[in-house]
Amino acid sequence: MSRTALLPALLPALMLTGCWKGTYAELDTTTFRFEPEASGPAGWSVAPVDVGLVCPDERSAPLYLLYPDDAAAVALEEQEPLPLAILFGSGSFDFLYAPEPADPLVGTHFAEPSRLTGGWGVGQVFAALGMAADPRPEPTREVHDGRLPAALAARGYAVLLPTNCWGDLWADDRALHPNSFEADFFFRDGRAAAQWAWRLVAEPAFGEAFGVSLPIAVDPDRLVLVGLGEAGPWPRSCRPTPTPTVSPTCRSPARWWTPFDDLRPVFADPGLYASIVEGFSRLWPNDGEAGAQTGSLWASPLPDRFALVYSTADPQPLPVSIDALLERLDGEPGAVVVERSEPAHVLLNGAVDDPALLDGLLDAVLP
To answer: Which long-range contacts does 45-54 make (Cβ < 8 Å, 24+ apart)?
Structure first.
């Protein structure tokens, strides 16, 4: 069966945003066999987890869970809890220059194709899984064959992938940290998606309170956060608020990162980067540069184990810097820093054919 049968409600958008790689076995209408372009372990499936979030085009924005079939076949209370990685995909920045209130998604976008649809969000999840082609045009197209989630699965780690169809760099939550609705004419919820992913696995009672559950038991002491490309601002989604029961600090034993961290170079030259600053003003309408910097890795508490992988020839479209982070990590115990020279933005998921690199990182940082 064609991979375009992923979710009936998302079929039209998926067909518009990218090509599926081959065919794979359908388990039911929403659960599919994990068959990445890279070789992966047998007996693993991918299923959506509906948490009630909605994209700007009114399509569903679920989380997606990669899990072993044999674990899910056992009653939840009888399962051995699994370690889990939360994987945040890249490319989640977009806005319209002059949106119309009546139809705010029609017009000229910063990004091409639009990052503000359910098709984009789901497509990026399945691209990261190595099960769909990256829809971006050259030179920003990324190489994903799914070797990162496959390697995690081979070591027994389930993987949870939030959708981001809000183009907000995982920064916004309509309830706690809203975007500028007056400029966008829609709400952004990337931070809410990130919080859902974290709290669902770190706080068992959280999902129960909303009637949301996973088919597997998760070990909250063996969680790892993985950010690809523009997922770098994810720590901002974890910063403490006056109501920590609503928005906790997301403390994980380990993180992996590909660089997207220091936004100060953009704010320092609003003339040169006028359009990007305009987009950032939609994401942080009240706190501006200060809000954008809150939680950046160069200024945040780091976990016990941390890995940064970056390329000196990164073709990423946003002029951010990791110099402050590199200085911060110099001599930091538990930090692994890998410098590469390939012209790639996301290095760990197929762009670099170096199994020893991935295995070394797994050995260094997995709890």
So the answer is: 45/69, 45/72, 46/126, 46/129, 46/131, 47/215, 48/7, 49/160, 49/200, 49/212, 49/214, 50/212, 51/193, 51/196, 51/200, 51/210, 51/212, 52/210, 53/163, 53/189, 53/192, 53/193, 53/196, 54/189
